[in-house]
Design goal:
6 helices, 2 strands, globular, mainly alpha, about 160 residues
């Protein structure tokens, strides 16, 4: 998955923690994540948008405050039309990655849940990425990792504001 023969991305030596360095490193990481997601999508017979939808469903399953993902929330989050959401959800359901479940209290509401089979397929595929992440984490102390997590959380918060 990760190419060992590829040269590392250049970090400007004059300011290794400056904005330019962050921009270069974040772009490189984003490009690699996109490449890996695209490869997973291709292996599963899906579109990259479908993988992004899977991530949204997975994250919603973990966010007890927001509740389960619905097609409407998915469309809003991904900036998709209702028709595009329906096509995406249909592909994901046919591929066995998600299931639609009607809400008990309001049968008009549909919740989207990641299936166990879908989780297992993703877990198997992304295992090398998990190992790489764990190896990178092992290079840092707990205090350093807390700072990294703070930085990533703050970036996510600010990116969400840009999206709004």
């Amino acid at each position: 998955m990760l190419s060992a023969d590829r040269p590392p991305h250049d970090v400007p030596p004059e300011d290794p923690i400056g904005l330019q360095s962050f921009a270069v490193l974040l772009r490189a990481m984003n490009a690699d994540f996109n490449r890996i997601a695209q490869e997973f999508a291709h292996a599963q017979g899906l579109h990259l948008t479908d993988v992004q939808a899977l991530i949204a469903v997975l994250d919603a399953d973990r966010d007890e405050d927001a509740g389960p993902m619905t097609p409407g929330r998915l469309g809003t989050r991904m900036n998709l039309t209702s028709g595009a959401v329906s096509a995406c959800v249909d592909r994901l359901e046919r591929a066995g990655h998600i299931r639609r479940v009607r809400a008990v209290d309001d049968r008009r509401v549909v919740h989207l849940h990641y299936t166990q089979a879908g989780r297992e397929a993703a877990r198997e595929y992304f295992q090398p990425l998990a190992r790489s992440t764990d190896a990178a984490r092992a290079c840092f102390s707990a205090d350093e990792l807390h700072i990294v997590v703070r930085f990533m959380a703050e970036m996510n918060r600010r990116l969400a504001q840009v999206r709004s």
